[in-house]
Every structure is written in structure tokens, then in C-alpha cells.
# Entry
Amino acid sequence: MSKKKRIGIIGGGISGTALGFNLSLYDDADVTLFEKGRIGCGTTAKSAGTVCLFDDSLNNRYWDVRLYGFETYLKMERERKGSAGFDKTGTLVCATSEKEVDRIKAGIALAESAGYTGEYITDKARIKQILPMLNTDTILGAGYTADDGYFDGTMISNTFAQKMEANGGTILRGADVTEIVIENGTAKGVKTADGDRYDFDVVVDCTGPWSRFTGEMAGLDVPIWHTKAEAFFVVPPEKHLDYVFPILKFPAFYALRAGNNIFICKSHLSMNLDDPMHAGQWDPDRLPEREGTDDYFIDFLFHQFEKNVPGLTDAGLNSSWLSYRAETRDFLPIVGDTPVKNYLLATGYGGNGVIEAPAVSRDLAKYIMRGESTLLLEEWAFSRLLKDKGE
Amino acid sequence: MKIAICVKYVPVDSKVQVDPATHALIRNSGAGEINPSDRYAVEMARRLKKDGDTLDVFTMGPADAVRALKVVLALGADHAYLLNDKAFAGSDTLGTAKVLAAALTQYGPYDVVLMGSASNDGATGQVGPMTAELLGMPDVTDAVDLQIDGGQAAVSKKAGDSLFALKTALPVLVTVPFGANEPELPTLRNQVAANQHDIIDVTAADLGIAPETVGQAGALSIVTDTMQVVQKKQAVTVTGTVDEMANKLAGLVEGQLKALQQGGGEHV
# Structure
């Protein structure tokens, strides 16, 4: 019997658990995942979990990534209802420019090619039927599908974790990795806070907003920034809506239902890494469980709603929380090899971890186990960011 | 009628740090929010306020405590006072009551003063009655309803499963427990407006308070230790067929009963 490949994964969020599950599908993989808290408890728990068939969160160039994620979660839901926390609300994507019209229409064509429904609507009365509180004067039209919705990142992470363990993988909960063991420029393992050492053939950093700190342990400058994801939960004036509030997407913000509340947030692609109000380098360990938001973001969202969704301006502000997204300069993740041999990354998903983790993990697991790369891994490789820096 | 509401800005989670020397919470070490029972006092104040009345909100705390004031402004307060001075830091309940009483005197007099019954961090329930004593006004704790009529306050006071109907002359200080009513939420529109509202900063000097009489220096009670609550409760997932789950549940209940009879037991 050949020796198994030992892989250590740091981080039990959506990134780490999805990778752990995909690696556990290989008979010759010996996978151990380290999570310092609980599975899916970090910034994954604060993800909105939207996986829309044709919004702007991920360029249509990577539409297959979106589809693979969506269908992975639908499959989970079929296997065990609730295991991905699916709320099938549909999505209304509003177009405020001709460029967006084209992008939405292309997305609808892609969705239809995969067997889903989608329509581009210019009839304003019809759009208001879907979302009565919308001001349709500010939009050219809207793409709509009833087929998608949002998922629960924590549920998904736990489902991946269960599957991984069922396949023989090991999860060490409450295990805080405090050292990456590097010998002759090669990652050899990790040490945890309790002093134990674990030897691996490959170590993968899946710590998202913590990656810069985890990377430092390997002597690596991981080029991610933290952008603020400040979410507010509001209660519409009607208290209980008599229609399904769809995921609402505008270029600058999005909204979705969360029980009887509406979750609102500035969109991740509208964040400016050079604006200190939007982005910086912070300590995710200091994120509060709730609150911690800035007046800036509620002011921003109010003005967006005043213009576009006046029905929410008199919504009651129930609660809020602050989270950090891990973003790269091009807002795409960093996946695969790094300058430190056998120290790999699957991080920098920004606001798209729930969308992208399944496809990335599928490809990365294959690369780790068989050495076969994919177009996706090549486009999202660490090396592209080194080129940006002129290295 | 002049109504005052006193609120506290409290930490939202367990990440708050504790000063190893004084054992007091370091109040600028994490995010905070308006104390939960104060929300119910604010709602009582809102319902009490009629046209022509004024509602002022006070908080003693660090600069971040303006966030609590802004929430109350969004809910209809007219003026907001931040009682913030290094001399106030480390105040015990009496020190806090002294500062509040001085502010309520300075910017009052008020006909009705409302507070939450207890904070969710200190949870002594002492500040309200102490403040009333210093102001020389009657107080009613744990009030779930308050009506003002003809210069008198009619108060429903919660005591266990009972309600006492009390009447008292004005001015009166009333504390309100968690769950007393259904608090209104600030709307986005009102919150955005409130975020631009002036906050009146008040120092010890403004109130004529000698620094040595409040804060750590003036504290008559001493916190000797602060301990983390050890959570023993553990959730157990019971799976299987209906019969299997029933058997497992029966086993768990029997196990608990046995352990309780022996004076121990896991918290499940």
C-alpha cells in the first residue's frame, strides 16, 4: 500500500471545510483540519451566503464557478434538507446602465443554458409586482429568476466537515495553529498553541481574513486587505411582508430577507482598497459578535435606499454587525502554490467564499493529490499578484 | 413636562477586557450597545412624551457611548448629554449615581426620570434607587407601566408574578425591567438624522463635582475579583429513528435524574 499524502488545512470556514471534503474523496489523502474556534464560526458565519445565478458578484467569465457552487449546495439540500440552509427567494438584479443590461442578459442566457429560468424585465409595473417597495424610475430594467437564493455558510461548512469526517478526515476543533514549520524553504508541518507538532507534506492556509497573519508564520506576505462588511438588519414598516422579498442587487448594495428582517449591506465590489474607511489591515480576532459598525455605512445605505428602495427608508434598525472580507487588488482569490514550497493558499475570496469555494476546492484538491492544474487555478494563482508587484 | 432617560453603553460580547488591577471592565476595549433593559425604559419615555414635553437622554461612559445616545435621539430624544471625564472612570454604583444626580439637577429639574432596572454587565440594580435618593425624589423599581395624571404618577410595578398598582407624587424616578413593553426601533431615516445631532459633552467641572468624590478615587465598594462564568451546558444531538431517539432521550433523562439525586449531574 502506498504512503498517503498528509495535508494540513488551517481554518474551518467555508474555504477549509470545502477543501477538506474534496481532499477526503481521495483514498490516498490523509487530511487534518485545524480550527481554533468552531466550524464555520468566523467570518463565514457573517456571510450573506447569496449564490445568485446572474448578479455581478463574480464576472461572467467565471460563471461555471458560480454554477458549480450553486449546484453543490442544491445537492446538499437534496441529500438532507436544511444542510445548506437554502432560502429560495429568487433574485432581482437591477440595471442602472447599458453595460449592466448586457451583463445581466448574458448571465440570464448562461442560466438558461444550464436549465434555470431567468428573464430581463423592462416593464416597470411587473418589476414592482416582484418588489413593490422599489423605485423603478432609477433603473433601466431588472433581471429576475425565482430559482436561486441564499445559503447559510455555517451550515454548509458543518455539512462539509461532517462529510469530510465520514470519509476519514480529521478535524481538530479548538486547535490554534501558532507556528508553520518551515525547513529549507519548505513547509513541513504546523505547531499548535498546546505545543503539539503535526507533520505534513502540504499545508494549506484557508484562514481568509486571518491569512496575512497566518502567512507571516510562513514568512510570506499574503497580499490581502480587509474590507469592511457592515450589515444592518432592518424591519420593514409593514412588519410582515405578504410577498417573498427577493435578493435585491444594485451595483453599490444588496439586500435579502433574514426571517422577518431585511439584511442590507454595501456590495464588496464597490469597496475601495485605498479608502481607509473601506479597507485596511485589521485584527479579525477583535471583531465583535455584533455591532461595531460605522455611521458612514448606514448613511451610505440610507441614501441608496432613499433613491432606489424608498420603502425601506422608514424600516426599523434592529441590529448590525461588522465583518472583514479578505480582498486582493483584483478582487479575486489566491489559490495554490506560494513562494514557500508546499505552503498553499485558498484565501482572498472577498465576499464570494460561498460562491467560489466548491469549484476552487475541487480543483485545488486535484492539484494537491495529482499535480494536475486547471485554468481556474492558473488564473487565480498567487503568481499573478507577484507580477502586479513587478516581481 | 420634562422627562429624562439615563442609559448605559454596555459591551456586546465576552471579548471585553478586564483591568487586572481594578477588576473593572475596560469599557473602550470592544464594541458596545445600549443596555438591553434601558431599551424598555426608552420606550416608556417615548410613550409618556406628549406634545410640548421634552425628553433628554444622559449617559455616563467613554466617548463611544455616544452611540447609545444616538439611538435614543433617533427614538425621539431632544437633547443628549455625554457625561465623560477621566475622573468618572472606575466609579462604583454610588459614584455613578452621584454623577447622574448632578447632571439631572444641572439640566433639570425633571418631572420623570427613567432608567433600566439593571445593566447586563454590572447588574446591581442599585444606580436607579441611589440616584433617586440623592435627588430626594421617590423611586419605583421594576415598573412595567407608567401613567401621569394630575401631577401624580400611576405605576404598575412587577414583583414576581404579581403587579402592584402604586401612586406617587412627581417628580419620580422609575426603573424599567427587561421585557416591560415592546420597544420601537429607530428607523433608518431617524437614525441617519440622529447621527448628525449635537451631543453635549459634560465634564466633572461642568457639574461642579470634586474628582476625588467619584470614580476609582471615590469608590466605596471594591471589586476584589472578576471571574469568567464557566459554561457547563452542552447541547447533545439526538439522531436515529423515532424509537431510537425516544430511547436515547429516556436514557439522558434517567441519567440526569440519577445524577441530580447524587448531587451532581451534567448540564444538558
In short: Residues 353-370 of chain A form the longest helix (18 residues). DSSP finds ten helices and 20 strands in chain A.
